[in-house]
Each structure stands twice: as C-alpha cells, then as structure tokens.
Amino acid sequence: MAAVGRHVHRADLPSLLVMPPSAWVSALGELARLDFAGPHLTGAVAQIGAWLSGPGEQFAFVPFNAVAVAVVVYVTLRGRDFDPWLRLIGAAVLAEYAVDLIYAATPRYFFGTWLLSAVIVAVFIERWLPAWLDKHGWQAAGRLLERAMGGRPAPRPA
Question: Is there a contact between 52 and 65 (Cβ–Cβ < 8 Å)?
Fold first, then answer.
C-alpha cells in the first residue's frame, strides 16, 4: 500500500477493481452452466458495455468500438504486412484493453486507448479498403456516388 500525503492509494479497492481476473473466470463458469443471470456474468457484460461505450459513455458507440477492437486484434496478431511499430502499438493497446476490463470504467482513462485504436483502424482502412472494394466489384458504388455528386470523383492514386 502506498501512501501519498494523507491519502492511501490501493489498486484492489472494490470500487476500483470491479472485475478481477477471478470474477472473469467465474463469469466463464456461469456462461458454461448457461446461468445468464449469474452475478459474475452480468457484471462482465456490464463491464464490457461500459468499456465499449468509450470515453463518451454512449451506448451507440458499442458496435463501432467492437469493430475497432476486432481490427486491433487482427492487425496485432495476424497483420504480418503491417509495420512492426503499428503492431507494437497494437500490443500495447491490447494490454490496455485487459486493464480496462478489470478496473472501473472511468472515461478519462479510455481516451488514450481509443485514440490509439482509431489510429490502427485508420491505417487498416487506408491499407485494405481500396483493394477490398476493387476485388469485390464495388466500382458500381463509385458510379452511383458519381451520379449522386453530379460529377466525376477524383481519381484514386495508384
């Protein structure tokens, strides 16, 4: 326990350590028993929801942040053709995700995590989206956009 001035700081206070690793193990056990109303499983779902709502604490961001998490996991673990520094940043973000799932969901601590997640997602989109669109025949989307905008879109760089 570290004391600073008159204040005592502990990392294991119940108000801070809301889902310790043992609670996650218990939540998995409740899920395996199909005990969907179990206290640990409901706590885990609440913690994931609070985490995925991001620093703005908006439930509408949960699907977008879930996709961002999937992209960070992919780039970090499977993205061999991405820059090693980006993958290293991804590993740091994954470690922060783990911390975010254990401790109280305090929005101010999420800013850095979600900012770095957004950087990784932006690189992923910049790298993969044009090739994916070309491969899947989305030229029609470009023509539709061209008609909607009333002109020709700017040519894509090669």
Answer: yes
High-pLDDT (> 90) share of the chain, %: 22
Q: For residue 82, give the DSSP letter.
A: S
Query: pLDDT digits over 29-56, tens only?
Result: 888 888 888 888 888 888 888 888 877 7
Closest CA to 109 of 31, 153, 51: 51
Render the burial of 86-115: b for 16+ CB within 10 Å, e for the rest: bbebbeebbebeeebbbbebeeeebeebbe
| DSSP type of residue 14 | T
> Rounded to an integer, what is the distance from CA 142 to the centroid of its chain?
30
DSSP summary character for residue 155? P
